[in-house]
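R.M. (postdoc): so does anyone remember the format we settled on? I'll just put the structure tokens first.
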């Protein structure tokens, strides 16, 4: 983890303070800010560091499978359950359970997780035997849980169970000189990994583009653009074009001669295209960059026939 700005120094201070304490930790921050790395750092410095760190992405697992993923299931408990499966909770025994994107948990799972966190006992899906584990819970979210609570989408009592202490990670654009330090570190790393390619650094235009770009995808986007730039570079210097951050043409020119309705439609399509391209085709990141919901963005993607940009 790289950081010299005040916000990141505070993150490092909190990691050192909370790691030895057997408290649940809630990590907050936008996607790509390094929440999983913080979870790893806390686990490695904790009293349960000899046990496993078991991650569960609550937003990536279909809701009908999430309970089984967490708590396991017995053979024959549902159609397709051909064998007994141990869940992530059991696998994390004597270690750390990392609940990523915890704000995506469906309501029925929130209830079961709350019950589990009360005394760390549970039953596998289809089972009757009560089981107990000894583990630490670290959760992470890029959503505002307080807002979800006010909208009835997240249980307040579960929030207080998970939020023993909060560690908030700042966006990359708010980390000052750390952005430029990370860009240089990643450049050396990926040049070395790409057949030890001889890259001397960034051109002045590329450096200016890196420092002025808002980085909606945060560190993940920075890594992706630099890895791509190293592959595309034909000389000894990374250019703004290699990064895909070359100056863009004025928005005014393409709209000349269009009526208001046509110009708005074209602008909308261009905006969605640019957001998806800059965010590597990730709908969630593009929606955050555009300050809209994923459902609205999917509607615009279908409206303008941009499905080919989704990765």
């Amino acid at each position: 983890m790289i950081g010299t700005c005040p916000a990141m120094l505070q993150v490092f201070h909190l990691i050192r303070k909370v790691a030895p304490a057997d408290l649940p930790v809630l990590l907050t921050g936008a996607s790509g800010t390094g929440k999983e790395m913080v979870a790893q750092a806390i686990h490695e410095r904790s009293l349960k560091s000899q046990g496993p760190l078991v991650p569960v992405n609550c937003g990536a697992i279909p809701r009908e499978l999430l309970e089984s993923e967490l708590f396991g299931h017995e053979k024959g408990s549902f159609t397709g359950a051909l064998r007994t499966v141990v869940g992530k909770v059991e696998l994390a025994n004597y270690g750390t359970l990392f609940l990523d994107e915890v704000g995506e948990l469906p309501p029925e799972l929130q209830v079961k997780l709350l019950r589990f966190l009360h005394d760390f006992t549970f039953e596998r899906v289809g089972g009757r035997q009560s089981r107990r584990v000894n583990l630490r819970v670290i959760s992470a979210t890029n959503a505002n849980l307080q807002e979800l609570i006010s909208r009835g989408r997240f249980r307040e009592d579960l929030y207080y169970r998970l939020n023993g202490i909060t560690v908030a990670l700042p966006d990359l654009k708010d980390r000052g000189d750390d952005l430029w330090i990370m860009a240089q570190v990643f450049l050396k790393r990926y040049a070395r990994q790409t057949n030890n390619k001889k890259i001397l650094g960034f051109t002045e235009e590329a450096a200016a583009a890196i420092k002025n770009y808002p980085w909606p995808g945060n560190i993940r986007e920075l890594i992706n653009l630099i890895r791509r730039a190293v592959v595309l570079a034909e000389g000894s210097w990374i250019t703004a074009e290699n990064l895909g951050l070359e100056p863009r043409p004025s928005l005014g020119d393409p709209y000349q001669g269009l009526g208001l309705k046509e110009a708005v439609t074209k602008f909308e399509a261009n905006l969605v295209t640019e957001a998806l391209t800059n965010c590597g085709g990730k709908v969630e990141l593009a929606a955050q960059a555009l300050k809209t919901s994923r459902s609205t963005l999917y509607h615009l993607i279908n409206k303008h026939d941009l499905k080919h940009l989704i990765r």
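R.M.: ...and that's the designed sequence above, right after the tokens. Also worth knowing: The CA atoms of residues 27 and 140 lie 4 Å apart. The longest helix spans residues 260-278.
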